[in-house]
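Give me the fold.
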Amino acid sequence: MSFLNKKIFNSSFNVFGLDLSDLSIKVIMIEDEGSSERVASFGSINLSNGAIVDGEIQQKDQIVAAIKKVIISAGPKKIKTKKVICSLPETKAFLRIISIPQMNDDELGEAIKWEMEANIPLPLDQVYYDWQVIPQDLILEKNKINILVVAIAKTAVDQTIEVLELAGLEPVGLEIESIAQARSLLSDKNEKETILIVDIGDRRTSFSITKGGVPCFTSSIPLCGQSITDVISKAMNVSFEEAEKIKISYGIGDDFKNDALFKATAPVLENLAQEIERSIDFYVTGLKYSEGIDRIMICGGGANMKGMLPFLSKKLGREIQLGNSWINMDIGKDLPLIEKKQSLQFSTAIGLALKGLHYEDIS
């Protein structure tokens, strides 16, 4: 599902993925070598605070300059193509599943429009929306048409297209983060499962629950990697920069010993665990799309924090696994250029690049 898709007819055109978030820009291009697929180029650049706030571009010129810079610096192969598939901010998107009576295709579009007006908080003339029919055996009411609809504020889409074009790029696809992540992290083996993906980023933690590979529920909270750095900084009376170094070196501290570092981070971690439980409860008892969650997967930069995975596993009483961003790539015998831990920060960009690799799926 994308808000802007242009059919690419010439297979000689490469397409790369670009993940545009509040604090960074990540790019990656994947190439098909016949017998295997490989990362041809990747790069990342940090953005200053305030350049993008909650998915809204505040400093257009800085973003355009950063896009140009990260493309030039990406390697080992130079990104020469102008064709790009870019992420759209989850915070500006509204994802819903609707059920409507069986009807013909001519009536379907109008029925979806009416349901959208009843289910999203913005007027239809202020959003772009897209939809796809969900296989009937996956979700919801039988003998009805179940449809996944996604709407996103026009301002977010228009801003994204504008900065990409000002950077000299040709956007051939735009996609919300949760759908791109599902493409990189979930394999055919997960097609019968209900999976919660927890993306622990620098500015927010996002939750995405998929069933049969279809995102059915998304939400986000302000608890994030920076929240943990903040509490370390205050508890230990050190600068934010020094607290970030402590977090990178020692993670969340020692839960078993209940050391000073863990005492500082525990309130944020407890809140994170509670928010995960609330999301699961709302999905299972409120939306009732599934009877339970089969698997919890974590990704994002915070997923690599020392002690994070065992803490959440213990607190939630569930097995939690690190995502594998390469699970849907045929990498052959060669290891990817991006090592596994770092690749968790690239999961959205990888999902976008995979869509670019399989250009025949763009329609």
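Confidence is low (pLDDT under 50) at residues 3-12.
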